[in-house]
Write a structure and sequence with these properties.
The complex is a heterodimer of chains A (421) and B (317). Chain A has 2 domains: 168 residues, Periplasmic binding protein-like II (D-Maltodextrin-Binding Protein, domain 2, 3-Layer(aba) Sandwich), CATH 3.40.190.10; 212 residues, Periplasmic binding protein-like II (D-Maltodextrin-Binding Protein, domain 2). Chain A is 46% helix and 14% strand. Chain A contains 18 helices and 14 strands. In chain A, strands 1, 2, 3, 4, 7 and 13 form a 6-stranded mixed sheet that branches. In chain A, strands 9-10-8-11 form a 4-stranded mixed sheet. In chain A, strands 5-6 form a two-stranded antiparallel ribbon. In chain A, β5 and β6 form a beta hairpin. Chain A is globular and about 70 Å long. The two termini of chain A are 46 Å apart. Chain B has a single domain, classed as MetI-like fold. Chain B is built from 14 helices and 2 strands. In chain B, β1 and β2 form a beta hairpin. In chain B, α2 crosses α14. Chain B is globular and about 75 Å long. Chain B starts with a helix and ends with a helix. The chains are: A alpha/beta (421), B mainly alpha (317). Chains A and B meet through α3, α10 and α17 of A and loops of B.
Chain lengths: 421, 317
């Protein structure tokens, strides 16, 4: 019995070796349209299934002998499962990746760089940067989201406040928010509502607008203790302090989108992902979109997903052929038409812009003109946790903003030093 | 303890008496043992694979720094040394003890309700029993959704009712200090059903004659409750309190579903198991494993303590 097992082991190893060597030969010629293989494609958003199935169908018109098996895992379990798969070198051949997790996989040598067939010029630069590590690009941008201000025209009218204009400033934003809060206090309506669970909706943007950064470009030092970053955080704290926006407790009880959709907040900083909910909401006819207000500069954080190929893939040539197809304008158009997400491929976004009566073009303009990469490092989760632990005390006014920012920067630098050991 | 020891001796003695010739019994004993093992094995294999082995592994991991992709490095007692000085861990232990203490306060309540439900001639007794038991069988996530709405600071029904009598209620689940009590009250409400079932069964075992004799002697209902029901129910109360302490120490799902990960008060309200979860999330797996060992030790210590103390207050008939 033991001997058969041994033999089987030897046979399997031999098979693996031949498989590997044949792949090495094949990976250079991704143009081989007749190659036969079976690859897996893992993602988490089940609402995009239709678009993805159609993309695979059209991919098979070009590569009829490659079978793509999809594997949908809910987001909450996706990265836990992926980590286990990576530990045992059984990663799916092609899979979705997001910013906070990217460097962890890239730095541990789990991903294959994109092929020459992918032209980075087709995507927003900030997204190419997000999925590059040590100067090499590993992910093909799939879709993206930027942040803008959704506002409720009816509430502005009711409070007698003028609508936001292009190029408006922090001060103008704050004045309007305060005026609406004061005018409509009896109805429990606030001028604005800030999503503070994570930085993407609010404070990453204000820090950038003030001229600061959350993390240095090389992901080694925290930017939280700079005067600019402190100004960005202070702006958020001030909104809460004078009642322009609900408190953290109120937000925790009732999330920001619920305030806005129910007409209890006149403004709402949020991203393209909110479009799906807002265009179906009861207040859809009152909604309009304005760019984020500026301070020292105009800025929004941009984040998007990417398609990556596993380094351990046993059918790398086929996986890369599929990745290249996902990178194409055709795949982007299919996604936009399904209304699933705002595709990253430049010039394919019209279908998305047309999906709502309010002006979604604002998000595209921001992406092109004033977007900054989403802050990440090799272990983003570690300092995201620190942000969630420490910043509430600053926003609520319990502790001085500068003091909290300094402590956060110190602890974040410790975490960053640890991940670079 | 002593009474059960007597029982064991009492049971063992008659079994030994009709022993057949030594040789045969020995052989049969051995084959019985073999069969016993065969029958126990499937269950034991499951327990070993899914409970014992993970505990051993967890113990091992608590001495390592564990990378995201399974590569681990031996660091000795570093994780434990860090735990001892970790203020967040201290706070988490206090929170867990506080939560467990409030849960324990629910037991007298359960005893009282059980006695009401077991009153002879109570109408709709089964309806009441079902109503009390329902929260225990409902999903914690679903229950949490409902309580989140009740507790909501701006739009919740609790604060609305308080406002009618002129009280401006807080955001129950996101205000430090208040949140733990709010969560614990939901915990008491859920565990009430389970406790009621166990205690009701215990009450059914109390002989009716005792109550008859007592009422002939002129004892009031309250007197009967304190001198007959409660003392004779102590074995059930003991069981319920052991289970309550264990479940109290494992507080996680309720906290997670009621408060959420981005709650401004979660850092000061988190339980030990929640702190374990936080560390897994940030990739500090070795440290999380050490927290797991501490939870195991705490549960062990408190359970042994309870078994030691039972002599002082539990009456076995």
């Amino acid at each position: 019995m033991r001997r058969t097992a041994l033999l089987a082991g030897v046979a399997a190893t031999a098979l693996l070796l031949t498989a590997c060597s044949s792949n090495d030969g094949g990976s250079t010629s991704t143009a081989d349209k007749d190659m036969t293989a079976e690859i897996s494609y893992a993602y988490w958003d089940a609402t995009q299934e239709k678009a993805i199935d159609q993309i695979i169908e059209e991919f098979n018109e070009e590569y009829p002998n490659i079978t793509v098996k999809t594997d949908v895992t809910p987001y909450s379990e996706f990265f836990g499962k992926l980590q286990t798969q990576a530990s045992s070198d059984t990663l799916p051949d092609v899979f979705w990746m997001n910013g906070p997790n990217f460097q962890l996989y890239a730095s541990n040598d789990k991903l294959e760089p994109v092929t020459d067939a992918v032209d980075p010029a087709n995507y927003p630069q900030a997204l190419n940067d997000l999925y590059s590590f040590d100067g090499t690009q590993y992910g093909v941008p799939k879709d993206y989201d930027t942040v803008a201000v959704f506002y409720n025209k009816a509430l502005f009218d009711q409070a007698g406040v003028e609508y936001p204009t292009e190029g408006w400033t922090w001060d103008e934003f704050h004045e309007k928010a305060k005026a609406i809060s004061d005018a409509l206090k009896a109805d429990g309506v606030y001028g604005t509502v800030n999503g503070l669970a994570g930085g993407q909706e609010m404070y990453y943007n204000t820090i950038l607008q003030a001229g600061g950064e959350v993390i240095s470009a090389d992901s080694t030092t925290s930017g939280y203790d700079s005067p600019e970053a402190i100004a960005g955080l202070q702006f958020v704290a001030d909104l809460i302090a004078d009642g322009s926006a609900p408190t953290l407790q109120q937000l925790s009880d009732t999330p920001q989108n619920v305030w806005f959709v129910n007409g209890k907040s006149a403004m709402f900083w949020s991203g393209t992902w909110s479009n799906a909910e807002l265009r179906e909401s009861a207040i859809v006819d009152d909604i309009e979109v304005a760019p984020l207000p500026k301070d020292e500069r105009e800025a929004t954080v941009i984040h998007g997903l990417a398609n990556v190929v596993a380094k351990s893939s046993k059918n790398k040539a086929a996986a890369q052929a599929f990745q290249n197809f996902l990178a194409s304008d055709r795949a982007a158009v299919i996604q936009a038409e399904a209304g699933a997400a705002l595709p990253a491929f430049n010039g394919t976004q019209e279908a998305f812009v047309a999906s709502a009566p309010y002006n979604l073009q604002v998000f595209l303009d921001e992406a092109e003109n004033s977007s900054f990469p989403y802050p990440v490092s090799k272990n983003t989760a570690a300092w995201n946790q620190l942000e969630n632990e420490l910043l509430p005390a600053a926003f609520s006014g319990e502790r001085p903003v500068a003091e909290v920012a300094k402590e956060l920067a110190e602890k974040m630098n410790e975490a960053l030093a640890e991940e670079n050991e | 303890m002593t009474s059960s020891a007597v029982h064991e001796v009492g049971v063992a003695a008659p079994a030994a008496a009709p022993a057949p010739p030594a040789g045969r019994s020995k052989r049969r004993g051995r084959s019985d043992l073999g069969w016993a093992l065969v029958f126990v094995l499937p269950l034991f294999a499951g327990v070993a694979l899914f409970y014992l082995w993970p505990i051993v592994r967890n113990f091992w991991f608590s001495f390592t720094e564990w990378g995201p992709f399974g590569d681990s490095e031996w660091v000795g007692f570093d994780n434990y040394a860090e735990l001892i000085t970790d203020a967040t861990m201290g706070r988490a232990i206090l929170n867990t003890l506080g939560y467990t203490a409030i849960l324990l306060c629910g037991i007298p309540l359960a005893v009282y309700f059980a006695s009401l439900l077991n009153r002879p001639g109570l109408r709709f007794a089964s309806v009441f029993r079902a109503a009390f038991f329902l929260p225990y069988v409902a999903m914690p996530a679903a229950i949490s959704m409902v309580w989140r709405i009740i507790y909501n600071g701006d739009f919740g029904i609790l604060n609305y009712m308080l406002s009618l009598i002129g009280i401006d209620g807080p955001s129950w689940l996101s205000t430090e200090g208040v949140a733990l009590v709010a969560v614990a009250l939901v915990g008491v409400w859920i565990s009430l059903g389970f406790n009621l079932i166990i205690l009701s069964a215990g009450m059914k075992g109390i002989p009716v004659e005792l109550y008859e004799a007592a009422s002939l002697d002129g004892a009031t209902r309250w007197k009967q409750f304190t001198t007959i029901t409660v003392p004779l129910l102590t074995p059930s109360i003991f069981f319920v309190s052991v289970m309550t302490v264990i479940s109290g120490f494992q507080l996680f799902d309720l906290l997670y579903a009621l408060m959420g990960t981005t709650n401004p008060a979660i850092d000061k309200t988190q339980s030990v198991v929640y702190y374990f979860f936080t560390n897994i999330k940030t990739g500090d797996n070795g440290y999380a494993a050490a927290i797991g060992v501490v939870i195991l030790l705490l549960v062990g210590i408190f359970t042994v303590l309870q078994f030691r103390l039972q002599k002082k207050w539990v009456t076995y008939v």
